[in-house]
């Protein structure tokens, strides 16, 4: 295992795993406390539309997926405000239509046999240096936003009606959380794939929530657990030649199981 | 100046009329009880006073201005403080959400803000729980914290929506005793179902069921003799107090209709 660290692709995989885990820990916490898990799922799957279009037009995949996911996030934010009663229907719609667009565009791309599986289940062993920069920049942005706006974000997440009464622009922060979720989902696609991203955004967060007495603590613990699960998952993936995303999720699920048993035992 | 002045206010959700032709004046240091059946429009009236909803017709003035201008002076304690109890947040942080005004530090909480929040917790007798997780408290304790959150802004008006639902009798008494103390320095408005309790503390009562019937009950002890127990009105007396008399919205026949939702 140690000699594997000399390979650039392994180093990239590890750095990407840590960056994405930390971002997922912070944003996953916000998604869970704001009860946006289903919304994030919709955005994650819709982003495949962006991947398909990027492939078709020959654009960078991250760019296509990011723009598409952000548009989906803005659409979801608008729908939450105006179509509250049918929100789940519309999220389901965005979920499916986004994927369908992605599939049709890759079909239309001549001579290109895109490896669909790698986007659905992760392809961490093909992380480029520019991917790492993108991930690092996004993590820095997330940390900056959360540190600078911690109080309004906490207020909006805990009790949005009261936050509104205190003059906090609730819609702005709600949309901001969704857009950051969309971007996190996009970088997480490289590591765990868009089908499995929801598990990465929720399993470490669930454990962290039980152990934390404040939101920032929950974010730190989530980030730590996500990193731990990702690194162990990558080790399994490398050693037994398994798909990275699936390994990480199964390690996370096992971790959750052990946590629940340990808690019950007390 | 009147604390709150509502003139000819009507409100409808889409086409369904909820409130009609409401007139209400709240004076400084009043303790107003808003009562009435479920779905009668009590919570809607509160939301109009807070400016969360806009009236279809008529006006709401708080210290002579639209509610949105006076929000820092209104302390609000919402209904259902038992939701979101899984949220990892400390009591002190909940109270700090209520803090308004002053310069906020770039990161974290300022010393003055924390001491202000601790003061608010002390007022409601919850300072020992400042670092407890909100979900670990009982319903009554959580309610006190929500009152502290409202007090943190140093409001001139304190508005509470069903503050004692889902709290045991002892907890209810403590909450009302606390409100009575707070009423010495601020106007208190309480929406409540516990009419027999609330009328011991309130000096004004408004019965809301689409329309509003207003009663000055500050001299209730002279006006109404009670059944033995001086501190408690029976439902029949309350009905007499609030239903039949000077109620322009209803004739005697409708008095019963107004109260039929009550168990």
Description:
The complex is a heterodimer of chains A (about 270) and B (about 260). With about 270 residues, chain A is an all-alpha fold. Chain A has one domain (about 5-265): ABC transporter involved in vitamin B12 uptake, BtuC (Orthogonal Bundle), CATH 1.10.3470. Chain A contains 12 helices and no strands. The radius of gyration of chain A is 18 Å and the shape is globular. Chain A starts with 7 loop residues before the first helix and ends with a helix. Chain B is α/β, with parallel strands linked by helices and about 260 residues long. Chain B has helices spanning about 40-50, 65-70, 90-95, 110-125, 140-150, 170-180, 195-200, 220-225, 235-245, 250-260; strands at about 5-15, 15-25, 30-35, 55-60, 75, 155-160, 185-190, 205-210, 210-215. The model of chain B is unreliable at about 220-230 and about 245-263 (pLDDT under 50). Classes of the chains: A mainly alpha (about 270), B alpha/beta (about 260). The interface of A and B includes residues 167 and 209 of A.
Comma- or semicolon-separated keywords:
heterodimer, A: 266 residues, mainly alpha, ABC transporter involved in vitamin B12 uptake, BtuC, 12 helices, B: 263 residues, alpha/beta, Rossmann fold, six-stranded mixed β-sheet, three-stranded antiparallel β-sheet, 10 helices, globular
Topology:
The complex is a heterodimer of chains A (266) and B (263).
Chain A: H1 8-33, H2 37-57, H3 61-82, H4 87-108, H5 116-121, H6 129-148, H7 150-158, H8 160-165, H9 170-192, H10 197-211, H11 215-240, H12 244-265
Helix pairs in contact in A: 1-6, 1-9, 1-10, 1-11, 2-3, 2-4, 2-9, 2-10, 3-4, 3-9, 6-9, 10-11, 10-12, 11-12
Chain B: E1 4-13, E2 16-26, E3 31-35, H1 42-49, E4 57-62, H2 67-70, E5 74-77, H3 91-97, H4 111-123, H5 139-151, E6 157-161, H6 169-182, E7 187-191, H7 195-201, E8 204-209, E9 211-216, H8 220-223, H9 235-244, H10 252-259
Parallel strand pairs in B: 3-7, 3-8, 5-6, 6-7
Antiparallel strand pairs in B: 1-2, 1-4, 8-9
């Amino acid at each position: 295992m140690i000699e594997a660290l000399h390979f650039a692709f392994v180093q990239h995989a590890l750095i990407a795993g840590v960056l994405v885990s930390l971002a997922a820990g912070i944003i996953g916490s916000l998604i869970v406390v704001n009860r946006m898990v289903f919304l994030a799922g919709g955005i994650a799957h819709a982003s495949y539309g962006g991947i398909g279009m990027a492939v078709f037009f020959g654009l960078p995949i991250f760019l296509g997926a990011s723009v598409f996911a952000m548009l989906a996030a803005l659409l979801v934010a608008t729908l939450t405000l105006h179509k509250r009663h049918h929100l789940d229907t519309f999220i389901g719609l965005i979920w499916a239509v986004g994927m369908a667009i992605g599939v049709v565009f890759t079909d239309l791309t001549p001579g290109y046999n895109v490896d669909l599986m790698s986007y659905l289940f992760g392809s961490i062993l093909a992380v480029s240096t520019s991917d790492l920069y993108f991930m690092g920049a996004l993590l820095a942005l997330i940390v900056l936003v959360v540190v600078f706006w911690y109080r309004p974000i906490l207020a909006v997440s805990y009790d949005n009606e009261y936050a509104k009464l205190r003059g906090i622009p609730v819609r702005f922060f709600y949309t901001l959380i969704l857009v950051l979720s969309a971007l996190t989902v996009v970088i997480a696609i490289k590591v765990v794939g868009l089908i499995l991203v929801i598990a990465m955004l929720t399993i470490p967060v669930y454990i962290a929530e039980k152990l934390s007495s404040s939101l920032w603590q929950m974010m730190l613990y989530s980030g730590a657990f996500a990193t731990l699960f990702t690194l162990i998952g990558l080790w399994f993936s490398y050693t037994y030649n398994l798909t990275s995303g699936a390994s990480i999720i199964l390690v996370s699920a096992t971790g959750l199981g052990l946590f629940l048993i340990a808690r019950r035992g007390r | 100046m009147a604390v709150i002045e509502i003139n000819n206010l009507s409100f409808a959700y889409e086409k369904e009329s909820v409130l009609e032709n409401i007139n209400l004046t709240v004076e400084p240091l009043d303790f107003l009880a808003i009562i009435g059946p479920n779905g009668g429009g009590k919570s809607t009236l509160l939301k109009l006073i807070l400016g969360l909803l806009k009236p279809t017709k008529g006006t709401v003035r708080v210290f002579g201005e639209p509610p949105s201008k006076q929000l820092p002076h209104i302390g609000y304690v919402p209904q259902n403080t038992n939701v979101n109890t899984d949220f990892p947040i400390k009591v002190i942080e909940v109270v700090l959400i209520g803090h308004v005004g002053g310069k906020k530090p770039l990161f974290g909480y300022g010393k003055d803000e924390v001491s202000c929040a601790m003061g608010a917790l002390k007022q409601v007798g919850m300072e020992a729980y400042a670092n407890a997780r909100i979900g670990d408290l009982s319903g009554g304790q959580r309610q006190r914290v929500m009152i502290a959150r409202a007090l943190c802004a140093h409001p001139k008006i304190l508005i509470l929506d069903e503050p004692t639902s889902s709290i045991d009798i002892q907890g209810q008494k403590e909450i009302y005793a606390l409100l009575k103390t707070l009423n010495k320095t601020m106007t208190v408005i309480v929406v409540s179902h516990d009419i027999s309790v609330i009328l011991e503390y309130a000096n004004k009562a408004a019965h809301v069921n689409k329309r509003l019937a207003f009663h000055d009950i500050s001299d209730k002890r002279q006006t109404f003799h009670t059944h033995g127990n001086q501190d408690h009105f029976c439902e029949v007396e309350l009905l007499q107090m609030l239903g039949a008399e000077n109620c322009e919205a209803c004739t005697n026949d409708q008095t019963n209709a107004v109260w039929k939702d009550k168990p």
